[in-house]
Amino acid sequence: MSRLPKLAIPSPPPSPPLPLSLVADRCASMRQLAQVHAQMVVTGRISDNYAASRLLSFAALHPAGDLPGAIALFSSTTSPNSFMYNTLIRGLAGSPNPSQALLLYPLMLHKGPPPGRHTFPFLLKAAANASDLSAARQIHTHAVRHGLDSDPYVINGLIRSYGNCGLLSDARQLFDEMPERNSIVFTTMVSGYVQNFKPSEAVSLFREMMAAGVEPCDATLASVLSACARLGGLEMGRQIHGLIGEKGIEVGVILGTALVDMYGKNGEISVARKLFDEMPERNTATWNAMICNAAHYGHANYALQLFREMEMDMQPNDITFVGVLTACCHSGDVDFARRIFRSMEKKYGIEAKLEHYGCMVDLLGRSGRLREAEEMVEEMKWEADVVVLGALLTACRNHGDVEIAERVVEKMLRVDPGNHGGYVVLSNMYAEVGRWEDVVRLRRVMKEGGLKKMPGWSSVDNDER
C-alpha cells in the first residue's frame, strides 16, 4: 500500500495585535505602562490619544501610578484632549500640591479644548484643597461664562471650596439657592460647618436633611458625629449610632473612627474602646482618637499601651505624640516623656510643635522641675504663647518659685502687653511671702493699665483635668 503524501497544513494567520488602548487598560504597574508607551513610540502611534489617555489615567489616578510620570506623558502629547486635561487636573487636585492642578487651566484655555462640566469640579477640588479663595472665585466666574454655574457637581464644588476657605455664608447661599439637594451636597455643607468649628449649625442642617427625607451616607454621618464630639452631644451621637445599625450602613474606617472619637470625647471610654477593638481595620486617625481621648480622661496607662501597639502597626504622627505626652502628664512619668519627646525628631522625623512643648512644660512644672521647664521654653524655635507660659506660671505658684515666676510674667507681657492676668498670680505670690511693697506696686500697675482676663489660660490649677 503506497503512502499518501503528507498534506501541508497552512499555519494559522498571526493574531492581530491587541489595540494599545486595551493593553494600556491592563497595566498594573508603572513599568508595564512605560513598556506600552515605548511601543507607541517605536510603532509610530505616539499620536494615538485614546491609548495615551488610558496610560495617563493609570499614571495620574491609580494607587500604583506616578504623578510626575503622568505630567511627563501629558507634556509629550502633541494635542492633549479634554479627557487628558481633566484626568491630570483631577490627579493633581488630590495631590500634596493641589495648586499644580490650577496651573493647567490657563494652558487649557490657551492651547487645549474648551473646559467642560467635568473640568470645573476638579478645579474646584484643587482650590478647596489648596484653600485658595482667589482661585475659587475665578473658577466660579469662568463656570458662569461657560453656562455651567447651575450644574449640581459644579455647585457642590463651589460649596466645598467656599467652605474650606471659611466663607460659610457664600457656601450656604449657593446651597439654599439649589432647586434640589441630594445627599452629596448636604454632606458637603455639613462638612463645611464641622471644618469651620460650627458644630451646632452642622447638627441643625443634618436635622433639616432628615426632615426632607434625604438619606444620609456614611460621610454625612461621620461629619455629624464629629460635630457631636465637639458639642458634647452624646445623646445625638447615640441616635446616629442607632441609625447606622437600623439602616445597615457599613461601618468602615472613617465612620468607625468618627464613632470612637465621639464616644471618647464624651467620656465614654469603655464604649469607645469596645468599638475600637471591634474594628477590623484602623488608620492613624483611629489610633489617635483612642489614644488622645483616653489620655484626656486620665486613662494614662491604657493610652501608653495603645501607643506601643500602634508603633508595631503604623507610623505615629504629631497628633499621636500630643496624646502620649498628655498621658505622661497624668501619669507623672517624666523620664518616659523625655524619651518620647526626643524620639519624635530622631526616630520619626517629626518636629515638635507648640502643643508638644506645652505638654512637656506642664509635666516638668507639675513635677517641680521648674528650671528645666523654663529652659525648654527658652529652647523653643518660636515664642511661647500664654497657654504654655500660663502652665509654667501655675507651676511656679504651686511650688513657690517667685524668681522664675517674675521672668515668666515678663515674657507674658511681651506676648500680649495689654494682658495683665499674670500680674494677679504674681501679686498673690508676693503676698504669700510678705513682699508687700511689690504687691502695692503691681496693684498700682494693674489699676493704671486696667485688668484684662487672660484668654485660654486660668490661674486656677486643675489637677484633675
Structural class: mainly alpha
Number of helices: 26
Identify the CATH architecture of the domain at 353-465: Alpha Horseshoe
Question: How many strand segments?
Answer: 0
Largest sheet: none
Per CATH, the class of the domain at 353-465 reads: Mainly Alpha
Strand/helix succession: HHHHHHHHHHHHHHHHHHHHHHHHHH
Helix residue percentage: 55-70%
The proportion of strand residues reads under 5%
Q: How do the helices and strands line up, and which of them pair or pack?
A:
Layout: H1 20-25, H2 30-42, H3 49-61, H4 67-76, H5 82-93, H6 99-111, H7 119-129, H8 133-145, H9 152-164, H10 168-177, H11 183-195, H12 199-211, H13 218-231, H14 234-247, H15 253-265, H16 269-278, H17 284-296, H18 300-313, H19 318-331, H20 334-348, H21 354-366, H22 370-379, H23 386-399, H24 402-415, H25 421-432, H26 436-449
Helix pairs in contact: 2-3, 3-4, 3-5, 4-5, 5-6, 5-7, 6-7, 7-8, 7-9, 8-9, 9-10, 9-11, 10-11, 11-12, 11-13, 12-13, 13-14, 13-15, 15-16, 15-17, 16-17, 17-18, 17-19, 18-19, 19-20, 19-21, 20-21, 21-22, 21-23, 22-23, 23-24, 23-25, 24-25, 25-26
